[in-house]
Amino acid sequence: MPHATPLAIETRGLTRRFGARTAVDAIDLRVPERSVYGFLGRNGAGKTTTIKLLLGLLKADAGSARIAGIDVATDRIAAARKVGALLEAQGFYAYLTGRENLDLSRRLLGLPAGEPDRVLEIVEMAAHAGRRVADYSLGMRQRLGLARAMLGAPPVLVLDEPTNGLDPEGIADMRRFLRELPERANATVLLSSHLLGEIEQTATHVGILGHGRLVLQGALAELKAGLAAEVEIGTDAPEQAVAVARSHGFAAERDDDAVVVRLAAGEEPRGAAAALNRALCVAGVRVHALAPRQRSLELLYRQAAQPVAAAA
Ligand SMILES: Nc1ncnc2c1ncn2[C@@H]1O[C@H](COP(=O)(O)OP(=O)(O)OP(=O)(O)O)[C@@H](O)[C@H]1O
Questions:
Q1: Å from CA of 84 to ligand 1 middle
Q2: Does the record bear Iron-sulfur in its keywords (predicted)?
Q3: Is 47 in the pocket of ligand 1 (CB under 6 A)?
Q4: Predicted ipTM beyond 0.90
Q5: Which residue lies with its CA nearest to atom 8 of ligand 1?
């Protein structure tokens, strides 16, 4: 299917194993240009491994990845030029100033002398550029890390948990900043996080990773609008309740001791709950609870992040 917006990052069946463990399992990332793409997953879900694959720091066992249309495996250097990254280990020289640190990176990359000041301006660190990094707060170091990722103006920025370790004020600051980043830096931003709230506040798009698999992906607003509601039924006779609900055209399933009825997208949960109630009552099914609820991204995320059931 053709895409309305070109993709800044695209993977197909991207897979990476460590021994018997599949850390990244056939994922198809689609990150539209100029989006802030929230890459969401619990610790160990495979976010860092995916990011390393995108940056060419790890080799894929299967599948492919493209950055700004360039294949990461077959054209590694050209792809690397298209992406700037902020990873956990920043590796700044504490006794050098912020500007001096950036200038070292700038020279290594063979970029013009004006680059450090250009990126310092973007991250609003120009006033602190002459201070030693040793005297920076963690938030200032993160900004400096962001500035370094922007050297050479790559069209794609990949940021691994950029708010990790910041204090509440630093977090609020960084979130505001991230939202504005596509415009300020003229770039697409992939932002990894284990916090749904963070992604909901900053991202335009989201991809949820659970146990190495991409469980859900798309524009945040569309995903939220498309989430169907459901009705949970508490009953002593779940099998019978499922049969009755299905005979009335509802998509019902057992969920442990309860029965869950998934509604169609846009279907109003209260009306459906009333109809179900009536049908169950008429059929003589004892119901002790009937709860209509709107499904949320949070619920989906929780489901995606649940530990895999151990094989019996
Ligand atoms: N070099 C490695 N060798 C063996 N296993 C690894 C290696 N790197 C990652 N893993 C495993 O792959 C899985 C995914 O790890 P990954 O670091 O990508 O997750 P993550 O979502 O980034 O989590 P975190 O936020 O904790 O870094 C984990 O089970 C991890 O133990």
A1: 21
A2: no
A3: yes
A4: yes
A5: 49
